[in-house]
Amino acid sequence: MIRVLVASFVVALAAASAQAAEVMVHVGHSSVDPAEIKIKAGDTVVFHNIHEMPGGHTVTADDGSFESPPLAKDEKWKHTFEKPGTYGVHVKQHPTNKGVVIVE
After folding, report:
1. Which of 6, 71, 82, 91 could form a cystine bridge with 75, CB 3.0-4.6 A?
2. Structure pTM?
3. What angle do CA 101, 49, 100 make, to 5 degrees?
4. What is the CATH number of domain 21-103?
5. Quick one: pLDDT at residue 17?
6. Secondary structure of the chain as H, E, C letters
């Protein structure tokens, strides 16, 4: 009986993780691209810095809930969005470069 329960749990866990997706967002001097994305709860956004910047570019949540380390050109940083909601993001070094992640 315990083996059946453990096996069922492993199968359910594998199915749940197989459904999660990764979505790429490019950041740099002039933009967050795409500026708006829609994902599902549990999906991961990969922020990719595409421009050279002394000290790097930092992706920051408008509400302060997360912040990447400074990213050198071609570096990537991942954030998994667990809860539904609308999350504004910007590039710390260029605060007018904004984007929105809508989590369903």
Report:
1. 71
2. 0.81
3. 15
4. 2.60.40.420
5. 53
6. CHHHHHHHHHHHHHHHHHHCCEEEEEECCCCEECCEEEECCCCEEEEEECCCCCCCECEEECCCCCECCCECCCCEEEEECCCCEEEEEEECCEEEEEEEEEEC
